[in-house]
Design a protein that fits this description.
Belongs to the acetyltransferase family. ARD1 subfamily. Pfam families: Acetyltransf_1 (PF00583). GO terms for molecular function: protein N-terminal-serine acetyltransferase activity; protein-N-terminal-glutamate acetyltransferase activity. This is N-acetyltransferase subunit ARD1, putative. The protein is α+β, with helices and mostly antiparallel strands. The chain folds into 2 domains: 61 residues; 162 residues, Aminopeptidase. A 7-stranded mixed β-sheet has the order 1-2-3-4-5-7-6, with helices on both faces. Strands 8-9 form a two-stranded antiparallel sheet. The longest helix has 60 residues. The structure holds coenzyme A.
Length: 284
């Protein structure tokens, strides 16, 4: 009895202890698993973030800007069809590459897919002083925009126009409402507007006829396109409105962007009265 009783008591004590141990073991196992889950989730988040950062950082370095070849013509046309309403038949691309092979550039991604192009040409003039290049078309796939692709292909073709063909300037047309292209040409590449060509496009939209001089001093005679899509004289603008709060990188552009044509005219008159040496002060 005693023995039995003792054994029973002992058994009861033992099973209570075991239960407690089991309970704590189970509890800590759950805790451990939870900790593992949280840790692995955290690690995955960190790895994904790192992957994304690496992707955007390496995207441009993995891309290649190079002169176009005959093999690129079809892909250029395809990119153009996906990006712009102004399209051309394949013969027009072939005409460009056969006539001015140095003025066509493409950008391709790491899989050798064409993601952007520029189609340039020379406008032959009888007088050497008037020889100039022209950008027929430029486009970058939506997936690869704002990575510097357009700037890179534009700079490459402009360098060829300048060095290979001794062009005096490069010209192009851009839609009045094309903010992205206007920013690229005016702020990033330093183009200025020569005139507004009214109803230039088939849908009657006006075009800014823009130019960038490689030599000489004619660049300063061009106009800056303001945010209101009016033209402002840079030199005059510099006299009247100091650049205070503008976000533009180019100080001359910043000054002109804050100026209306009326203000520009008034400033031009004021400048003329002050003498020709002061007139050139704000010029680029
Ligand atoms: C216009 C276009 C070619 C720009 O190509 P992109 O490769 O994105 O241009 P980049 O990355 O070289 O950017 C050049 C500058 O333009 C700015 N930019 C690009 N897209 C912009 C947008 N949507 N709005 C404002 N600025 C923009 C960039 O921030 C950069 O400015 P920064 O030099 O001050 O930093 C591209 O948007 C496109 O293919 N558009 C459709 C086709 C087209 O309009 N072609 C031009 C016809 S004239």
């Amino acid at each position: 009895m005693v023995g039995d009783h003792g054994w029973k008591i002992h058994k009861k004590k033992h099973s209570g202890l075991v239960n407690m141990c089991r309970f704590f073991a189970f509890d800590s196992l759950i805790g451990f698993v939870l900790v593992l889950l949280v840790a692995s989730r955290y690690k995955r988040i960190c790895t994904e973030k790192k992957k994304v950062d690496l992707y955007s950082a390496d995207l441009f370095t993995a891309m290649q800007v190079r002169r176009a070849t005959m093999d690129d013509m079809y892909n250029m046309q395809h990119t153009n069809l996906r990006c712009l309403p102004e399209n051309y038949n394949l013969r027009y691309y072939l005409y460009h590459i056969l006539s001015w092979p140095q003025l066509l550039y493409v950008c391709e991604d790491m899989n050798k897919k064409t993601v952007g192009y520029v189609l340039g040409k020379m406008d032959d003039e009888e007088e050497a002083a008037k020889a100039h290049g022209h950008i027929t078309s430029l486009a970058v796939l939506r997936t690869h925009r704002k990575l510097g692709v357009a700037s890179a292909v534009m700079r490459a073709t402009m360098r060829e126009m300048d060095q290979e063909y001794e062009a005096n300037f490069c010209s192009l047309h851009v839609r009045k409402t094309n903010e992205a292209a206007l920013h690229l040409y005016q702020e990033t590449l330093g183009f200025r507007c020569a005139e507004i060509d009214e109803k230039y496009y088939v849908d009657d939209e006006d075009a800014f006829h823009m130019k960038k001089y490689f030599r000489g001093n004619k660049q300063s005679s061009l106009f800056y396109v303001t945010e209101q899509k009016t033209l402002a004289k840079q030199a005059a603008a510099a006299v009247i409105t100091p650049p205070t709060t503008s976000t533009h990188k180019d100080p001359v552009a910043a000054i002109a962007a804050n100026t209306t044509p009326e203000a520009a005219k008034a400033a031009a008159a004021a400048t003329a009265a002050k003498g020709s040496d002061k007139k050139g002060k704000g010029k680029k």
